[in-house]
Each structure stands twice: as structure tokens, then as C-alpha cells.
């Protein structure tokens, strides 16, 4: 079987983590770089990512996550926080990054900047918030696929009070809102979910070639 497909067959949304098994610094750095290299619309990456390892903070976050054990038992908790607004200042900062990275005069990027401002910045704030959250989910997908390649377990989660996370992590003052989280570590032997067959649509049901 293809190694990529084998890895995706191996992964599942881990419900019980081995709290004694910790990620190596090398593996955590690989996961972080995979997130950093994720695709995003226009390449803007309108989100920030928080690696939560502090036990006391994770206890607080568990209280606003319906008491789910993954929050405290996984090696670390990764919080994807999307920007609540996208402004012309964000576009300007992105153009400066492109200019520096690709050695292009920033004035040569004015057309691209105008396109982003017209397509995104002028949108209503609630629609921009929805757009930024979608970009964070793309990064989550990259995290899950990379973790599977490394045989690291992960559980993407939406079962939490996002406002509670924002409060505990002080995100609102940073113009951020919790979009989605992922517990990352190693499965516990007693997690029965790992032995269940993966349930997905058949290829015939899912794919349509036109």
C-alpha cells in the first residue's frame, strides 16, 4: 500500500492519550513547520497558532472543553486562532514580507495588494472572520496529515467554548478568535477507538469525474 495512504488509514481521532508519552522537540518542530508551510488563500495565513503545554492553563481549558481528557492528557494542545478582521495594514505587512523574501521592490506589488484589498479587506467583518477561520482549518489538515506520517496521534476538536478559550488565552485583545484545536501526542493502549474500522464514503459515492 502507498505509504501516504497507509498513514492516513492508521490515523484516527484519538480519544484517550498516554499522558506519559511526550513528543520530542524534533517532532514538534516538524509539526510546527508543516503548519507554517500550509496553503492559505493569497498566502496570507490570517491566523496564529498557540502550542499549549502549561499544565495549569490546560486544566483551565479543559473546563471550557466539556471536561474532555484529551485537553490535559495529550503531549500538547494546539490552538488555531484566526484573525477577527483583515485590514489594509495586514495586506501591507504581507507585501513587505513578499518583497523581502523574493527580493521584489514593494512598489511592484501594488497591483496584488489592491486585488487583496478589493477581494477581502472590503468585506463585512463577519464574512472576513469566516474566511480566516477556513484558512486555519487548512493548516489543521496539514497538521493531521503530517502527524500521521510521523505516527503521532492527533484529535481535531470543535467541542469547546471558543469564547472561553479566547478569555483564558487573552486572544480578543490580539484581534484573534479560537477557530479549532487539536490534541497531539500518543494513543493510550486502552483507547478502543483505535481498533474500529474507519468509516468513510466509498470512492464511487464521493468522487464524480466530469
UniProtKB/TrEMBL annotation:
GO molecular function, one term: oxidoreductase activity
Origin: domain of life: Bacteria
SUPFAM superfamilies referenced in this protein's UniProt entry, alphabetically: FMN-dependent nitroreductase-like
Source organism (scientific name): Sinomicrobium oceani
Recorded coiled-coil stretches: none
Similarity field: Belongs to the nitroreductase family.
A UniProt-annotated Pfam family: Nitroreductase
The keyword NADP is annotated on this UniProt entry: yes
Matches recorded under Gene3D superfamilies: NADH Oxidase
Sorted UniProt keywords: Flavoprotein, FMN, NADP, Oxidoreductase
Protein name: Nitroreductase
Domain Nitroreductase positions: 9-186
InterPro entries documented for this protein: NfsB-like, Nitroreductase, Nitroreductase-like
Obligatory cofactor(s): FMN
Amino acid at each position: 500500500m502507498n505509504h501516504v495512504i497507509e498513514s492516513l488509514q492508521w490515523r484516527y481521532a484519538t480519544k484517550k492519550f498516554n499522558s506519559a508519552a511526550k513528543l520530542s522537540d524534533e517532532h514538534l518542530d516538524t509539526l510546527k513547520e508543516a503548519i507554517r508551510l500550509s496553503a492559505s488563500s493569497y498566502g496570507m495565513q490570517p491566523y496564529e497558532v498557540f502550542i499549549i503545554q502549561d499544565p495549569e492553563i490546560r486544566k483551565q481549558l479543559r473546563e471550557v472543553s466539556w471536561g474532555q481528557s484529551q485537553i490535559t492528557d495529550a503531549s500538547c494542545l494546539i490552538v488555531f486562532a484566526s484573525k477577527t478582521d483583515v485590514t489594509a495594514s495586514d495586506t501591507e505587512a504581507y507585501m513587505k514580507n513578499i518583497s523581502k523574501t523574493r527580493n521584489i521592490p514593494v512598489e511592484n506589488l501594488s497591483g496584488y495588494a489592491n486585488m487583496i484589498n478589493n477581494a477581502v479587506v472590503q468585506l463585512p467583518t463577519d464574512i472576513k472572520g469566516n474566511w480566516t477561520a477556513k484558512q486555519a482549518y487548512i493548516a489543521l489538515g496539514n497538521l493531521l496529515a503530517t502527524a500521521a506520517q510521523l505516527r503521532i496521534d492527533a484529535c481535531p476538536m470543535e467541542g469547546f467554548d471558543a469564547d472561553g478559550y479566547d478569555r483564558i488565552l487573552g486572544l480578543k485583545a490580539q484581534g484573534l478568535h479560537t477557530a479549532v484545536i487539536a490534541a497531539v501526542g500518543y494513543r493510550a493502549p486502552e483507547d478502543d477507538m483505535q481498533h474500529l474500522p474507519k468509516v468513510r464514503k466509498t470512492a464511487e459515492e464521493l468522487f464524480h469525474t466530469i
